[in-house]
Amino acid sequence: MVEARSVEVQHLGVVPYQTAMKKMKQLQAKRIEDKIDDTLLILEHPEIVTVGPRARNDGIAPPEDYETQAVDRGGGLTWHGPGQLVAYPIFKWNLEGETSVAAIIERIEGWVIAALQACGITGNRDPRMQGVWVDGKKICSIGLSFLRWTSRHGFTINIDTPAGRVEGIAGCGLNQSTTTCINQLGYSLTHEAILSALLNAMDENLLRRPS
Fold first, then answer.
1. What's the number of domains the chain is made of?
2. Rounded to 5 degrees, what are φ and ψ at 200?
3. Do the Cβ atoms of 141 and 109 come closer than 8 Å?
4. Does 133 map to a domain?
5. What is the DSSP letter of 161?
6. Domain membership flag for residue 211
7. How far is CA 26 from CA 35, 41, 61, in A?
8. Considering the chain, what is the average pLDDT of its residues?
9. What is each CA distance from 142 to 2, 52, 65, 96, 172, in whole angstroms?
10. What pLDDT score does 189 carry?
11. Which residues are catalytic, by number?
C-alpha cells in the first residue's frame, strides 16, 4: 500500500485576492524546488470576480458593479466573496494517476464529491463545465495553473454566499443563476463541516493526508 504524501494545511482567514496570488507564486516556486511539502491554503476573499483567459477570449465579463481581477488559471469567470470556502493546493502532481490536467481535475472533483457525501449532500459532475454540481446547480468551481506540474490557484465551494451575487455571474457557456450556493438549495452546511470532511477525505481521494 502506498503511503499518503504529507500536506501542510494553512488556515489564512480572509485574504485580499492580490495578496493570495503573491503568496501562491512564492509557495509554488518553493514546492518546485522541494523546499516545502505539498501545501493547502484555506481562506476566503473579499468580493471579487476573477477573469480567466477563456472568459477574456470569449468577451465574457461580469456586470459592472463587480470588482474584477485578471488571472492566469484555466477557465472563465469565478466569483469570490463571503460565504465561500477557497482552497488552493500548492501540490506537486506526480503521484499515481496524476498524468494529465484532466486527470488532476477529475481527482479534485472526486475529492469534493466525497466530502459533500460525508455531509449528506449528493454532488456530481456535469458535462456543461468542470467542477461539482448539486441538484443541477454549480456550487464548486475549479481552475488551476501549472508550472512543472506544480499547481497554484485551486477550487471554491459556495456555502452561504450573499443572495444574488454568485448567481449574477454567467460562466463560460452557462447562464446567470446556474451557479449558486449550497444553502440556497435548501441544505444546511457550515464551513467547519465541509472543511473537516475535505481533510478527512484527502487520504482516500488524493493519496495525501494533512500533516
1. 1
2. -70, -30
3. no
4. yes
5. P
6. no
7. 11, 13, 29
8. 92
9. 27, 11, 24, 21, 13
10. 95
11. 172
Range of weakest confidence among 28-42, 63-77, 109-123? 63-77
Q: What is the edge-to-edge ordering of all strands in the sheet holding 208-210?
A: 124-126, 129-134, 137-147, 150-158, 84-90, 38-44, 5-14, 208-210
How many CA atoms, within 13 angstroms, populate the side-chain half-sphere of residue 180?
15
pLDDT digits (tens, 9 = 90+) for 8-17: 999 999 999 9
What DSSP designation does 3 have?
P
% of the chain surpassing 90 pLDDT: 77
Q: Is residue 207 part of a domain?
A: no
Q: Is 208 among the domain residues? A: no
For 119-146, write each residue's pLDDT tens digit.
Answer: 999 999 998 888 999 999 999 999 899 9
Q: Bridge-partner residues for 144, per DSSP?
A: 153
pTM of the model: 0.93
